[in-house]
């Protein structure tokens, strides 16, 4: 099955203001975030991307914009199910204030039990995101083959929850995962299990190119089984 490159949006005005943006409209990239987005096409240069799928929120669309300008042939899609968690009444509030809310302890230590007032639960957030990825995996494989690469631009909690699912971790452990602004987290899905290839990577991504694109000529392993070598592979 395909390899998914999960890109978190670049740094936003909410990040620098210490706000929990959620789905608040008008949250854009700040100057640093625009610089990060401008570097993304270079980081992905040489990778045969099958598609770019983005959250509908402005900061994700702005992160993808330089890539789509440089690659006008790249199929672009918007996916509602990878949008930010609906934080309900917490949306737009200062994180410093929210730290005093009793619910914040649940969010940090027992997120599978957390539901935001007037919003959604963290379990529902993970479920919709995982469902979206599984459906996109099947679609990309059907249209572009099992070795295809594609990209999703989403949000920190969404990406962390997808990593937890890929690693077989309970959602209650997902706060141990970190993915910074405009970082890339890469998961290869196989019929047997997913493999986490990169987590929160802000450097080069060219080595993700499949063998036929990189010119190595090596044969793919059997359903990814060779990736799980005892002791770790080189």
Written account of the structure:
By secondary structure, this protein is of the alpha/beta class. 35% of the residues lie in helices and 15% in strands. The protein has helices at residues 13-17, 31-43, 58-70, 95-98, 102-109, 122-144, 156-166, 211-214, and strands spanning 3-8, 49-54, 76-78, 149-154, 184-189, 194-201. It is globular and about 55 Å long.
Radius of gyration: 18 Å
What is the SS-derived class?
A: alpha/beta
Morphology: globular
How many β-strands, per DSSP?
6
**Helical stretch count?**
8
Q: What value does the average pLDDT take?
A: 91
What separation lies between the terminal Cα atoms? 22 Å
* Percent strand: 5-15%
Topology as H/E string?
A: EHHEHEHHHEHEEH
Into which percent range does the helicity of residues fall?
25-40%
Write out the strand line-up for the largest beta sheet, numbering strands in chain order.
3-2-4-1-5-6
Could you give a short account of the major beta sheet?
Answer: 6 strands, mixed
Flag low-confidence runs.
213-234
Quaternary structure classification: single chain
Write the layout of secondary structure elements.
Elements: E1 3-8, H1 13-17, H2 31-43, E2 49-54, H3 58-70, E3 76-78, H4 95-98, H5 102-109, H6 122-144, E4 149-154, H7 156-166, E5 184-189, E6 194-201, H8 211-214
Parallel strand pairs: 1-4, 2-3, 2-4
Antiparallel strand pairs: 1-5, 5-6
Helix pairs in contact: 2-3, 6-7
Summarize this, please?
This protein is an alpha/beta fold and 234 residues long.
Task: Describe the structure using short key phrases.
single chain; 234 residues; alpha/beta; six-stranded mixed β-sheet; 8 helices; 35% helix; disordered C terminus
